[in-house]
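As a warm-up, study this chain.
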Amino acid sequence: MRVKSELQPGQAARGDKLTISEVLAEYLRAERGRLAPKTYARYTEVIALFTQSLNGYAANSLSRFERARFDKLFNAEREQHREFCDIFGPEHILENVGEFLNYFMVSKVMAGADTLRASGTVMKKLARWLAEHNYVRTDDTALAIEQGADATRNLPAAEKLSALLYDLTVGRHEPHDSDIEGRFSITKVEPDRIWLQDDDDGMDYGPILLPEKAIKLCRVGWTISGAVRKSGNRCVLVEVFQVYP
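Now compare it with the structure written out below.
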């Protein structure tokens, strides 16, 4: 039976309060000794992207008190300026894994399948490592590990579907004023067609005919960002910007 540590989240085993930047650097040092150079380079790339995501978006979820502290240091000039990862400790890491995997990696990064797959793997291992080294509670890692596992499987497939749907729609339809642009959740998948629901107003669109190679990649619950058009008893995808798992 594993005994829970009495240390508080974000507190290192030696009692020091470290920043996110310092903890992520420590994690990479620990991984360097066991990974092949090519794999370690991939881990380094993912951690660098995660740092960018934290510095760019994590402040949006801060409490009012923490936000005031962040604004003061972030808006300071010259050597007094601090980024998110240089202000806060590792207690803020796990709560931002989902946004990194499901938004940042999908919308802000032009990455191949290997990097997308690795992003999920690295987040899983980082979550476990944080718990093992008493930076977070063991009980707090479950969601991040699940998010990492899902991303390892889903991100490459979603990116492949996004590229496929883009190729199937680009230049095929002249824009109409009646086209509906937005984010649409896949609600049903059949052998040759899908149905969508507008995330804003709940309106349903379908059936939308797609080739088998696209259907095989579609998953209920995934979101397609783009435009649809009603066409008789059916609907068509007019444009596809991105697919979000």
